[in-house]
Design a protein that fits this description.
The complex is a heterodimer of chains A (345) and B (195). Helix content of chain A is 25%, strand content 34%. Chain A has 345 residues and is α+β, with helices and mostly antiparallel strands. In chain A, strand 11 (310-324) and strand 12 (327-337) form a beta hairpin. The longest helix of chain A has 20 residues, at 2-21. Chain B has a six-stranded mixed β-sheet with strand order 2-1-6-5-4-3. The relative contact order of chain B is 0.14. Chain B has four helices and six strands, in the order αααββαββββ. Chain B is 31% helix and 31% strand. Classes of the chains: A alpha+beta (345), B alpha+beta (195). At the A-B interface, helix 1, helix 2, strand 3, strand 4 and strand 5 of A face helix 1, helix 2, strand 3, strand 4 and strand 5 of B.
Chain lengths: 345, 195
């Protein structure tokens, strides 16, 4: 019995070590943790809180500072000739204080959140459109002030996921800058190891016509990668084409098969820091064969060199997703431009 | 160690694994003594995901995404919009004036529909928090006029929603949603630094 207790204690200890070693970002050889569905969701919440904290300057800027881990940094690569980095709670809080603004002021519009496990935690990227809305007091029209891409490193602290670093890259369609936002790999099946595991095995519901939490997240991640593959297109359309099944069809123009998809993507404007396709309102529904979904698109031509921004087009995508051995992929994707049937009210 | 005790160990091992695992999964929960809670929706320290499963969280996100389609397209003559609310659910404008109950919400949707192909309500930054009897959340909204005849595309307006969600037998629904327009920009013109 005694040896059994020791065996249990040893087993428990080793499990604990395995369970928590992934949270240490300080080790030079930090292992890549397994991200659960809740890890993805909590990181996403962190990313979404950023806008409120910065735009309202709540708690005298400390709501913003407290989104960061203790030693974390924010870098504005667009500030000054070589960018500027802020570190420490007080400096970060000061960044969020800014000008006097209303608690209702909403500016940092964040979407296309891509998250990946990485040594010591996770990395991610998001698009940000920085709007100026409700400037009525100055008689100015609402507009997109500027925008671009955040490049993030996340770390799991005892208080939850926090930014370890966040860098802003202003959108430009021109030549790549140094350092360019890190490219994420091609999407992979979250269910493959290492991937999220459900704490409750029953939530991995294998019933046809139902999706597990991990399926929803993987489909969200698939869709969130789409704008990067198109706007940044680091590999002549390969990343873009790999978001689709081999026999997939995109409309319009009707484009079938990965080779044609890669060619189509490469014909679209792209650049290492280019942010143009902003997605929102992603609805996902299970079907007997997989899933269908839709989301809104607005393509924003963010003004460069102090030029005004404009809205290139908008509408929505209608998708069919298929679960392949590589993970969830687009089987069909159809864009439908926005058209208003009735006069705006 | 005999077979039986091995089994006991392995069961306990699994239990420990599950425990360690769930601790790993929820270690983002804010310790009540934590000096640095996230700012919450209601200004209280965030309770993180206590009380909400991943699927609850995902279903609430889906509810909010569906809202945009329902209000823009007025699908099913406004009934899809109304069906996103609990039977006693309400939409409130900036002053707090409520449109409450199914019939009134259907009528609201009919008044606001922009056509089956319209994309007008772009909703992002969806923050969700559990409460003792459901969840609350908020999002940013940008309203974009795109494809309206010959007019150039532009921004109509925006702001944020403040939501209360309730889990009904049919799934998560809005118990209350209030829209607060954005106001009080600190920027006289475009000189703000990117953050």
């Amino acid at each position: 019995m005694k040896s059994m207790r020791i065996a249990i204690a040893t087993a428990a200890l080793s499990v604990l070590v395995v369970g928590f070693s992934g949270t240490s970002a300080q080790q030079p050889t930090s292992p890549t943790p397994v991200l659960t569905a809740l890890d993805y969701l909590e990181i996403e919440q962190l990313v979404y809180r950023y806008g409120y904290a910065l735009d309202t300057g709540a708690d005298n800027g400390f709501a913003y500072a407290d989104l960061y881990a203790d030693d974390a940094t924010f870098t504005g690569t667009n500030q000054g000739p070589s960018g500027r980095t802020y570190q420490g709670r007080e400096r970060l809080a000061a960044l969020a204080r800014g000008g006097k603004r209303s608690p209702n002021f909403m500016s940092h519009w964040v979407t296309n959140v891509v998250i990946e496990p990485a040594p010591g935690g996770a990395v991610g990227k998001t698009y940000v459109g920085i709007f100026d809305i409700g400037n009525g007091g100055n008689g100015a029209k609402s507009r997109v002030d500027h925008g671009g891409i955040y490049n993030d490193v996340y770390v799991k602290t005892p208080q939850g996921w926090r930014f370890k670093s966040r860098s802003f890259f202003e959108s430009t369609s021109g030549a790549p800058v140094q350092p360019p936002p890190a490219m994420l790999g091609t999407p992979r099946a979250l269910s493959a190891s290492p991937g999220p595991q459900s704490p409750n095995p029953e939530s991995r519901n294998p019933n046809p016509g139902r999706l597990a939490a991990e399926d929803y997240i993987e489909i969200q991640q698939l869709v969130a990668r789409y704008p990067y593959a198109l706007d940044q297109n680091p590999d002549e359309g390969l990343s873009y084409a790999n978001l689709f099944t081999p026999d997939a069809v995109f409309r319009q123009p009707r484009t079938e098969g990965r080779q044609n998809l890669a060619r189509m993507a490469s014909g679209a404007p792209h650049g290492a820091k280019y942010a143009r396709h902003f997605l929102a309102n992603h609805v996902i529904e299970a079907t007997p064969d997989g899933a269908v979904g839709k989301q809104y698109l607005v393509a924003v031509d963010i003004g460069e060199s102090a030029q005004p921004s404009s809205i290139f087009l908008g509408g929505h995508y209608e998708d069919v997703y298929a679960k392949t051995p590589e993970g969830w992929r687009f089987k069909t994707r159809t864009f439908i431009a926005s058209a208003t049937a009735t006069e705006a009210k | 160690m005999n077979v039986r005790s091995t089994r006991v160990v392995s069961i306990i091992g699994v239990g420990v694994l599950a425990l360690a695992w769930s601790a790993h999964a929820v270690s983002g929960q804010v310790d009540p003594t934590s000096p640095r809670p996230l700012a919450s929706v209601a200004g209280k320290p965030a309770a993180s995901f206590a009380g909400l499963t991943a699927l609850d969280y995902i279903e609430i996100k889906q509810l909010v995404s569906r809202y945009a389609y329902a209000v823009d397209t007025g699908a099913d003559n406004g009934n899809v919009y109304a069906s996103l609310f609990a039977p006693d659910g309400a939409f409130a404008d900036r002053t707090g004036r409520e449109t409450k109950g199914r019939e009134a919400l259907v009528a609201l949707a009919r008044r606001n529909t922009r056509g089956p192909q319209s994309a007008f309500h772009f909703i992002v930054n969806h923050v969700i928090e559990p409460t003792s009897d459901g969840a609350v959340g908020k999002e940013y909204l940008v309203q974009l006029r795109i494809g309206e005849g010959e007019k150039p595309n532009d921004i109509f307006g925006g702001g944020h929603y403040e939501d209360v969600y309730v889990k009904t037998p049919d799934g998560w629904r809005f118990k209350r949603r209030q829209f607060m327009p954005s106001e009080g920009s600190p920027r006289p013109r475009r000189e703000a630094e990117a953050r």
